[in-house]
Amino acid sequence: MTTIKRIVSLVLTLSLLLGLVAIAQADAATKSISVAIPSDPSFTVDAIGDSNGLTTSLIREGLTRQGQGGTLTLGLAESYEHNEDYTEWTFHLRDSAYQDGTPVIADDFVWAIGAQLDGTVEVSYPDFLFEIKNARGIVRGTATVDDLGVKAIDDKTVVFEMEYPVTYFPQLITHPMHFGYSRASAEKIGFAEIGLEADAFISNGPYYLESWVHDDKLVFKKNPYYWNAENVAIDEIIVYVIPDESTRVNLFLNGELDLVDFDASRLSAITAAGFEPLTYNNGRTTYVSFNLQSVGVKNQKIRQALSAAIDREALVAGVVKNGSTPADGFVPVGLAGDDTRTFRDIVGTTLNYPYDEARAKELFQEGLAEEGISASDITVNFLTSNATENATVSAAIQQIWQDTFGITVNVDVLDSASYRTKRTNYEYDACFLSWGADWNDATNFLSGYEQTEDHNPSQYYSEAFNEAYLRGVYNTDVTARVTDLGESEAILLEDAAIIPLYYTSQYYATSSRLVGTERRAVIPYLDFYFADVK
Amino acid sequence: MRGAVKLKKYLLGRVVVALVTVFIVITLTFVLMHLIPGTPFNTGNTNMDPDALAQLEANYGLDKPIFEQYLIYLNNLLHGNFGTSITYTNRSVTEIILRSFPVSLDLGLRAMIFGIIAGLLLGIEAALHHNKFIDRFSTVVAIVGISVPSFVLGTLLQLVLGLWFSGWVKTVFHTDFQLFPIARWESFRYTILPSFVLSLGSIASITRMMRSSMLDVMSQDYVKTARSKGISERAVTWRHEIRNALLPVVTIIGRMVGNLCTGSFVVENLFAIPGLGKYYVNSVTARDYTLTMGLTIFYAIFIVTSTLLVDIAYGFIDPRISLAGRKR
Amino acid sequence: MSIFSQKTVPVATKTEEKDFVKDFTPVPKDLEASGRIHRRSLTYWQGALLTLRRNHSAMIGLAFIIIVILIGIIGPILYPDYMKTNMLATLQAPSEKHWFGTDLLGRDTFTRLLWGTRTSLMIGFVAETINLVIGILYGGISGFVGGKTDVIMMRIIDVFVSIPQMIILILLQTVMSNGVPTLIFSLCVTGWTGLARMVRGQVMALRENEYVSASLVLGAGRWEILKRHLLPNAVGPILVNYTMSIPGAIGAEAFLSYIGLGIPVPAASWGNMLQEGANQFPGSLWLFFSPAILFGLFMLAFNLFGDGLRDALDPKMRR
């Protein structure tokens, strides 16, 4: 008996091994790459998937999409036009289909956007859609989803009406909240179940989600029904969920991943293994925000002095060390301006108080005299969060301010949720912040400082800022509006309500066989749409 | 027969007490969670629109007074409903536990078995050869095990065994086979490093405890008596010394089971193991009330049950302690 | 070698005894001499101290512990500037100017190690001593009184163990400032439970012993028995537990640093220095090894001393 069992099991094992070899050989023909993300992704209707926005970009596509080298290209739309004052946008859809062959139609967009506003599906930030007519009203309950400014003229034409002129709308709709989703599929799956499992989602993007082991592994396969399938080079993308960065780097060095993002501390390990460290600008600005009501920093000259005390060159080269560049404004480099140039190209520098220690001390003394206080009277409670970079840079700034002015700076390092609460409640004098672009336009950064009747997130109020900002928002000349917005930025920085520190960058490395990877300042920060393997 | 009835009564009493314990834990955790500042929303860098925020809070009933929220929560619990996670949209707490806990349990048990075997062996050997090399060695192991944080040891092993050793194997034997994969949770090979890293702390505690306990027992009169009666050295060691020395060790092993199966955040994080540990840590920092509450209740039940089992086991092994009827 | 550890002491056989008698003439009885006490009579504590002093490894351990404590006290006074950043000299390898190199902000690792020693010792000793006191009292009472009191006290422990420590810590950090006192406090909230359980187990086992029954019969009070018999006998395991719990507390701080809730910058502690060093792995190894080696040696010393102390305090283990 036992001998027979042994033989049988031996044969089975051998055949299994042979089978594996066969599969491995078959795999060699398909182009497959592996990457890692830090946590299990989310595929709900509003989600960007993972922190890089990669996974959602694989299985969903909008009317437009981010192209190569900071350009914007067409996605599911084959063309679009707008009315004269940019309050109505019309998109004409191409022939494309979901992974199961159902065609993409205009109603997909009407349904998906309406469902996010009226609570049919749960979303985290419905305010991202508030530029669309009546969107805010639907959330408030003063309008119904029938009033929504998204209409399907026919199966191939969808029209968006705006609340105000939106010149950058084609940029805005590369964010997944503006994507469509099939109404029929949503009803079949159940609204609360969409995107929870691999089979509870249908893709209209270049790939579809074949399998998903939670917190572990996702396999994406090419979507044969996708309109541009013939130009999608990579057949299979395997995404592992690996929370720890040092583990991701080790896996990359061992040849198990084709791309990895890493911190400055891993730089030596990457270069030692013969990989070329690359950086990309990830569309964030790191800055210090002041509580303009608090005693120590309510004087404008003192705030300007605090700005002039910081040697941003030394800060990025010595402490941050990830390829970040010193800030010369608030809106980061890489964010779009007009059709050809970026915002920073047009506006130039607006930071009037760059590093100048002598001037800093001078301004500080003037400020003290205006307030009638001495340096020892000033205690700055500096709020920051416990992420390594934030805590480290905050400690550096604390030291700089204390050494330069002889004031007391207390750093308050908190976990991110407590930090946000204290920040929203203004329980700080100065606060460490890093702001990223959700959509590719300067309003993304500047809108927070506009004061309206129900919206004043920063305790900053300036007639001049409001005037310049609103002039920019309602200006339908794409270049002139950038100049207007640049003017408002200059006012903000002259008032020193915030002091920008640096435009952040991120290190990454790719395996030698992977080519054509796109990294950019807006979502998706990582994109394999144009990539190929050698 | 009377003993059995008494035991039954004792057990029933303990279960009732355990339920009360869990109820108190629920209440305290609920209060504490709502005392710490922060909401589960506004996780990005956008200052949320007040309308949108109000709508979201209403969705989760967070706009109601805390006491009302508490009652609603208890009511849901009674109906077996742990609620839906706030940060992991639309995912039920039960689903997360059912999916992730088996992995944590698997990892914890492996580490436990590893820890018990290595710890007892080292501890016994150290005591039998008091002040000899093996004793010193066990001390060093214990010190390393306790003083090296698992994130350090794990990183080190990943680098040395996972990366460098595999690289060496690759160049020498021309094979991609990895004896110690860097991360993830697949076949047996994948479990070796994480189980070892997780077990090191318990190896250390068990070694120290067993050694100390053995030394204690070895100097007891009954051991001397046994030896002087001419019982073989092996029998004395096994039947008298080790058996009795195990008693205090059982208590800490019992406590460890709970800790190992629930407190493996660092190891799970480092080795990318899809366990429950990270949900626990993340849910607290993200103020995901329902998930934190669900996991706390789950862990409380787990810990209370394992304590109960240890107490019962203790009563069976140690003849000096009687479970049900006390002598006095 | 203790004469009671029978294993290595050869037991004389009967034939050997006969040979003794044949070869030697007995010394005449001298009642006065045999009544004389040659060895100074020692109290329990004097004996313990004597045994401890003869134990070389324990004394080396003690010496090292004292040195580390002195480093923690005096070091920061001699090198006060542990926060001094230098953005032009970050992550420098050890040199004459910076013995242990510099960290991410160009701060001197040696100076930070001195300060970190102070912080970690404070956390370890203060937290664990508080836990020790609470644990002994709680466990002692619970185990000794027994019955319903014991059941209730043990269930209270179950509650404490089940509340996530992180919640308490975050709460304390936002209410109090986050620093050493907050951390110590949060380590104490649940830290005493392990020791209390162990002491209770010991006491419960010991109280069934004959000498305890004998004392009871002889009319000793409960407190007397607890103080005189139970606690001294449980002292060995308690000490082992204490020596292991101090690195445990320091390790807990390191774990909390790992998840971002430990001692916050710019303060230094062994835990957050270890974390920072591990973060740089495998580059800038000095950042990791300087706290790691000091911590490891300190733990070794603590264990050597703890072992010696245990042997010395246990009358059965005395020479």
Descriptive tags:
heterotrimer; B: 328 residues; MetI-like fold; 75% helix; disordered C terminus; C: 319 residues; mainly alpha; 12 helices; flat
Task: Describe the protein.
The complex is a heterotrimer of chains A (534), B (328) and C (319). Chain A is built from 17 helices and 21 strands. Chain A has 534 residues and is α+β, with helices and mostly antiparallel strands. Chain B has 328 residues and is mostly helical. Chain C is mostly helical. The chains are: A alpha+beta (534), B mainly alpha (328), C mainly alpha (319). Chains B and C meet through helix 1, helix 5, helix 6, helix 7 and helix 8 of B and helix 6, helix 7, helix 8, helix 10 and helix 11 of C.
Brief account:
Chain A has 534 residues and is α+β, with helices and mostly antiparallel strands. Chain A contains 17 helices and 21 strands. Helices cover 71% and strands 0% of the residues of chain C.
Q: Could you tell me the strand content of chain C as a percent range?
A: under 5%
- The dominant shape of chain C is flat
Reported CATH architecture of chain B: Orthogonal Bundle
CATH topology of chain B: MetI-like fold
**Span of the ends, CA to CA of chain C:** 7 Å
- In CATH, the architecture of the domain at 105-317 in chain C is Orthogonal Bundle
Number of helices of chain C: 12
Main sheet overview of chain C: none
How large a portion of the residues of chain B is in β-strands, by DSSP E? under 5%
Would you identify the regions of chain B where 5 or more consecutive residues have pLDDT less than 50? 324-328
> What structural class do the secondary elements of chain C suggest?
mainly alpha
Extended strand count of chain B: 0
Report low-confidence residues of chain C grouped into runs of 5 or more.
1-12
What is the CATH domain class of chain B?
Mainly Alpha
The portion of residues assigned to helices of chain C is: over 70%
Radius of gyration of chain C, rounded?
A: 26 Å
Helix content of chain B: over 70%
